[in-house]
Amino acid sequence: MVDSLKKPAFDEMRPGVKVPSKETILTPRFYTTDFDEMAAMDLSVNEDELRAIIEEFRTDYNRHHFVRDEEFNQSWDHIDGETRQLFIEFLERSCTAEFSGFLLYKELGRRLKNTNPLLAEGFTLMSRDEARHAGFLNKAMSDFNLSLDLGFLTKSRSYTFFKPKFIFYATYLSEKIGYWRYITIYRHLEAHPEDRIYPIFRFFENWCQDENRHGDFFDALMKAQPQFLNDWKARLWSRFFLLSVFATMYLNDIQRSGFYASLGLNARDYDIEVIRKTNETSARVFPVILNVDHPDFFKLMDDSAQKNLKISEISSSDAPGLVKLLKKAPLIGSIAVNMARLYFMKPIDTAKLEGTVR
Fold first, then answer.
1. pLDDT given at position 1
2. Under a CB-based contact definition with an 8 Å cutoff, are residues 85 and 8 in contact?
3. Of 52, 169, 62, 150, whose CA–CA distance to 106 is shortest?
């Protein structure tokens, strides 16, 4: 008999191929954009920096990095129960996010090849990196007898349309927060190797440098389009995207705190560290950043995370659909109020900061 604690039940499209997790407001998004507007962009204001970053992409520091070694060649049945389920979810979410970046960058590279070759090359080389990341994560899932059908994901997921300016905001933050997430886990496990439950975490130090370089590329792109950063609307959008990325991560991670506990991490402390570092890094390009040191900032995040846990419990209950909706509505409303309070907290003007974290 198969031990259900060691083999948590996941719906499968076919043997060994996991049904993708349901799309929600907190799941990784797939994006598309205005390719004509992107093609027409004049990069001359910051072309030298862009060329220097693309030259780093060409060097391909990690071309030999994503190679599985002997440590992977063992049974992972000792990772069982809730830890196994949460780890598979972590791999799926990470793979989906990396694959989303691959699809967007690949399409941008293809569409811009004849109209904006410098930009096209940058996106094509980043798509190479994201493909490696997604493939490595999907192969890791196979160690747990599951994988994702990435071709099916390409066709079945809904795509969110963002104008190029918003693509830049969103992807810059995605890459930079990815850097801080990976390096924070890596540094913790380097200090506490007894908590490294699976060898993929050994790869995070080099891996996060890909994320960092990608973020630098979008930093340089935004600086090449100063109109995206120098008006009152940019100040509002910077706050919006920072809060959206931070809140999404925080609610997701608190909901899956057991995964971080299995690595010897406190999910809340980990997220606070990642948010602080990403916020400081964003001061290099955004006109404003969030005041995460405000005494109410993490109080409101904590309250929202607890209400999100209650929403999840209601969704998993056997109550009729209408009853679930009625129970969830006030919780959703309360989270929305918290997010509004966070958004309208006075931000920090980055022009007044003396230094930032890279």
1. 35
2. yes
3. 150
Determine the Cα–Cα distance for residues 48 and 51; give it in Å rounded to an integer.
5
Average pLDDT estimate for 129-145 = 95
The 10 Å CB-count burial string (b at 16+, else e) for 217-238 is bbbbbbbbbeebbeeeebbebb
3 state DSSP class of 313: helix
> Can you tell me the distance from the alpha carbon of 156 to that of 152, in angstroms, rounded to the nearest whole number?
6
User: CA-to-CA distance for 216 and 238, rounded, in angstroms?
Assistant: 17
The Cα–Cα gap between 206 and 183 comes to: 9
> Per-residue pLDDT for 3 more than 80?
no
Token output for 147: 């994988």
DSSP 106-136: HHHHHHHTTT-HHHHHHHHHHHHHHHHHHHH
Give whole-number Cα distances, 58 to 39, 61, 128, 215, in Å: 21, 9, 11, 16
Distance of alpha carbon 282 from the chain centroid: 15
353, pLDDT greater than 50:
yes
How far is the C-alpha of 341 from the C-alpha of 247, rounded, in Å?
A: 13
What does the DSSP assignment read for 63-96? TTT----GGGSS--TTS-HHHHHHHHHHHHHHHH
Nearest to 26 by CA among 98, 92, 93: 93
CB atoms within 10 A of CB 98: 24
Record the tokens describing residue 321, joined without a space.
Answer: 């659909």
Under DSSP, the state recorded for 20 is P
Rounded to an integer, what distance in angstroms lies between the CA atom of residue 156 and that of residue 99? Answer: 13
Using DSSP's 3-state secondary structure scheme, residue 147 falls into: strand
C-alpha distance from residue 208 to each of 172, 217, 283 (Å)? 14, 14, 20
For residues 27 and 25, give the distance between their C-alpha atoms in angstroms, rounded to a whole number.
6
Cα dihedral value 268, 274, 277, 278, nearest 10: -120
Strand partners, 288: 349
Contact indicator for 43, 224 with CB cutoff of 8 Å: yes
